[in-house]
Specification:
Radius of gyration: 15 Å
Number of strands: 7
Shape: globular
Distance between the termini: 43 Å
Strand content: 15-25%
Order of helices and strands: EEHHHEEEHEHHEH
Helix content: 25-40%
Number of helices: 7
């Protein structure tokens, strides 16, 4: 790992949220990984299981391009964004996140009929509760992280835990 990944840097979120006026659930991450920031889209690290989980829940083929990923989310009324607009971070480490400026989630909540908010992992859930819950007035359900760092959860266990997202859409 390059030495730079151990030094905190101020990073800004440059990936636009995915949503439309039919989005019913909002899934929030904490902040994009280095790979995602480089690619300009969510969950780009090849070992992250987010897209495998969403594909399994929606019974759709695994999307490969950014356009396919966006279309899959929109087709299934899923909005996707992150809690953080900018922060100091070392590489992709959620545990290193400091000096947070949160995203304005009302951008989505005022436009779409969101009935459930879900956090992809404990850090996203913690940050949502610290910076966003009072402003939105809405609870957020903590789901196990799809990150490769969450090795305790197999893909099967992740899909079982994330089934609550699919139920919210029914």
């Amino acid at each position: 790992m390059p030495k730079d990944n151990y030094q905190p840097v101020r990073a800004a979120h440059t990936i636009e949220p995915v949503f439309d006026r039919t989005s019913e659930v909002l899934i929030l991450g904490s902040f994009p990984s280095v790979k995602s920031r480089e690619a300009g889209f969510f969950y780009h690290h090849p070992q992250n299981r987010f897209w495998k989980v969403i594909s399994a829940l929606t019974l759709e083929p695994l999307p490969s391009s950014i356009d396919e990923k966006k279309a899959l989310l929109i087709r299934h009324h899923i909005a996707l964004w992150d809690v953080i607009e900018s922060c100091e971070i070392c590489g992709s480490s959620d545990s290193s996140i400091r000096n947070v400026k949160p995203n304005d989630l009302t951008r989505i909540l005022k436009c779409a009929p969101i009935t459930g908010i879900f956090a992809n992992g404990g850090k996203a859930w913690e940050l949502y509760n610290k910076y966003c819950a009072a402003l939105t007035g809405r609870p957020c359900v903590k789901l196990p992280s799809t990150s490769p760092a969450n090795a305790a959860f197999s893909l099967e266990r992740l899909c079982q835990a994330w089934a609550v997202v699919h139920k919210e859409l029914k």
